[in-house]
Amino acid sequence: MAPAIQAENLVKTFGDVRALDGVSLDVPEGTVLGLLGPNGAGKTTTVRVLTTLLQPDSGSAQVAGVDVLKHPNKVRSLIGLSGQFAAVDEYLTGRENLQMVGELYQMSSRDAKARALELLEWFNLADAADRTAKTYSGGMRRRLDLAAALVVRPPVMFMDEPTTGLDPRNRLALWEVIESLVEQGTTLLLTTQYLEEADRLAHDIAVVDHGKVIARGTADELKAQIGGERIEVVVHRPDLVAEALAALTPYAKGDPAVEKNTRRITVPISGGAKVLADVIRELDARSIEIDDIGLRRPTLDDVFLSLTGHATAAEDENGEDGSAERKGRRAKGKDA
Ligand SMILES: Nc1ncnc2c1ncn2[C@@H]1O[C@H](COP(=O)(O)OP(=O)(O)O)[C@@H](O)[C@H]1O
Ligand SMILES: [Mg+2]
């Protein structure tokens, strides 16, 4: 069976910027592909090409077997798109926005009303249904934009960072909506900066950076590729960091990372708690005092650091959640 979404060697430049530098993808029907990458990687550009909003300089793409460049109108009738920036009419209420989409797609007025109500409830917008969208918070607009993309249940969906800026409750609710869509057979291409999200929703993940797909696999495969679990140690005395690193190096299954200013050493290992106990004994034998030590699974940061040499920075414009769940050392996005 032909993939529901297929792209071959897409190239797109904006002046000097090679936004897409030969992107190839395929998404089998009924599956979810997570396009994972930091700001500026080329995720939105990929989505815009596949949804006919942007012409590539070269390359080709098909959606539901239809050529995106040759038959854009046909493709548009087969897809749903929810954008990173809400395509919502500010002067209509939430309910009117959704009904209007249904009517644009030739639903009967009665069906459009019923669908609007169902989606308002799904997205926790029922209480705000009759307020104009311009009174909505950023997160509410995001939810309304997503709901609008779901009005007509298209067979192929594109979602560009659907949960960036949503609070944890709404993020979970959206994940459930997406899972139920996929259960009903929708094919989905979703972009995200959250490995956790790709982990939960995507059958397959393509990691993009600088306009290229640099890795492809399931979440587990990607994590395994960068060496599985790691030990993280915070050394008490700055002058003992180097010695601690020397003590840890024999256990390393990959390159250790040292953050001098926080005195933190991260070492990929295999062997779990047993190795952790050995390391604690070893540090103790050398009288190296530690502030913290633990075992953890690789994070999105680790995957990126390892694959690209730089960390991700989740963007978050008009979010509901601030950076509450952006744990640890991840830099906060400044553009967008
Ligand atoms: N319309 C545009 N004009 C100029 N540069 C653009 C335009 N759209 C995207 N770019 C550039 O292309 C690169 C990829 O952008 P984008 O696809 O939006 O990345 P992402 O969605 O992964 O953050 C970035 O360097 C961005 O600045
Ligand atoms: Mg983007």
Can you characterise this structure?
By secondary structure, the protein is α/β, with parallel strands linked by helices. It folds into 2 domains: 5-224, P-loop containing nucleotide triphosphate hydrolases (Rossmann fold, 3-Layer(aba) Sandwich); 228-296, Alpha-Beta Plaits. It contains 11 helices and 14 strands. The protein has helices spanning 43-50, 72-76, 94-104, 109-122, 138-149, 168-183, 195-201, 219-225, 241-248, 272-285, 300-308; strands spanning 5-14, 17-27, 32-36, 58-63, 66-67, 79-82, 156-160, 187-192, 204-209, 212-217, 230-235, 257-259, 264-268, 290-296. The strands form 3 sheets. The protein has a 6-stranded mixed β-sheet with strand order 6-7-8-3-9-10, sandwiched between helices. The chain has a 4-stranded antiparallel β-sheet with strand order 2-1-4-5. Strand 12 and strand 13 (264-268) form a beta hairpin. Helix 3 packs across helix 4 (109-122). The chain is elongated. The protein binds adenosine-5'-diphosphate and magnesium ion. Residues 43-44, 84, 160 line the site of magnesium ion. Residues 5-235 form the ABC transporter domain.
